[in-house]
C-alpha cells in the first residue's frame, strides 16, 4: 500500500457538508460526480496531499443510505492507494481478509476499487484504489 488515498464521509447532503468542509479545510470542492452503480454522488476536497470524499446516497437502498440510517453521518471508510489492485487483493485474501468484491470495479475519481470487510479490520471499512 502506497498511502492513504482519501477518507470517505457519509453525508445526507453534499451541499450542506460541502459548505462545512470548505470552511473547515479552507478549500473548495474540486470534483463532483455520480457513481450510478453504487447509487452515490461524491464530492472531493483536497488540502495538501490529503483528500476527503463526501458520499451522498442517490437511492434509499444504497450502501450509503443504509449506513446513515444505521450509524448516522460520519466516517464511512478509509481508502489506500495501491500500485496493483489485483496483486493486493490476492495478498489480502492469502492473509485471511474477506473482500467484498471478487473483482475490482470502477469507482469515483476514475479508480479501480475493492473493499475489505470491516469485520476483519477492527470495524473499519477499507477501500483499495488504483489509478487507471
From TrEMBL:
Family from the record: Belongs to the methylmalonyl-CoA epimerase family.
One Pfam family named in its UniProt record: Glyoxalase_4
Q: Does the keyword Isomerase apply?
A: yes
For the biological process aspect of GO, one term held by this record is: L-methylmalonyl-CoA metabolic process
Q: State the organism of origin.
A: Mucilaginibacter mali
InterPro entries from the UniProt entry: Glyas_Bleomycin-R_OHBP_Dase (IPR029068), MeMalonyl-CoA_epimerase (IPR017515), MMCE/EMCE_epimerase (IPR051785), VOC_core (IPR037523)
Question: What molecular function terms (GO) are annotated for this protein?
Answer: metal ion binding; methylmalonyl-CoA epimerase activity
Keyword Metal-binding on entry: yes
Please state the Enzyme Commission number of this protein: 5.1.99.1
User: What is the protein name given in its UniProt record?
Assistant: Methylmalonyl-CoA epimerase
Give residue ranges for domain VOC.
3-131
Keywords, A to Z, come to: Isomerase, Metal-binding
SUPFAM superfamilies for the chain:
Glyoxalase/Bleomycin resistance protein/Dihydroxybiphenyl dioxygenase (SSF54593)
Residues crossing the lipid bilayer are none
Q: What class of enzyme is it?
A: isomerase
Which Gene3D superfamilies does this one have?
2,3-Dihydroxybiphenyl 1,2-Dioxygenase, domain 1
Amino acid at each position: 500500500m502506497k498511502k492513504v488515498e482519501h477518507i470517505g464521509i457519509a453525508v445526507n447532503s453534499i451541499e450542506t457538508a460541502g459548505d462545512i468542509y470548505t470552511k473547515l479545510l479552507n478549500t473548495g470542492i474540486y470534483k463532483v460526480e455520480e457513481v450510478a452503480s453504487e447509487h452515490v454522488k461524491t464530492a472531493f476536497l483536497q488540502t495538501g496531499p490529503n483528500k476527503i470524499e463526501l458520499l451522498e446516497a442517490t437511492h434509499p437502498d444504497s450502501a450509503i443510505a443504509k449506513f446513515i440510517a444505521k450509524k448516522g453521518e460520519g466516517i464511512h471508510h478509509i481508502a489506500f492507494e495501491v500500485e496493483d489492485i489485483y496483486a493486493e487483493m490476492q495478498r489480502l485474501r492469502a492473509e485471511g481478509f474477506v473482500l467484498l468484491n471478487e473483482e475490482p470495479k470502477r469507482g469515483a475519481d476514475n479508480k479501480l476499487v475493492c473493499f475489505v470487510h470491516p469485520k476483519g479490520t477492527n470495524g473499519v471499512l477499507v477501500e483499495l484504489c488504483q489509478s487507471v
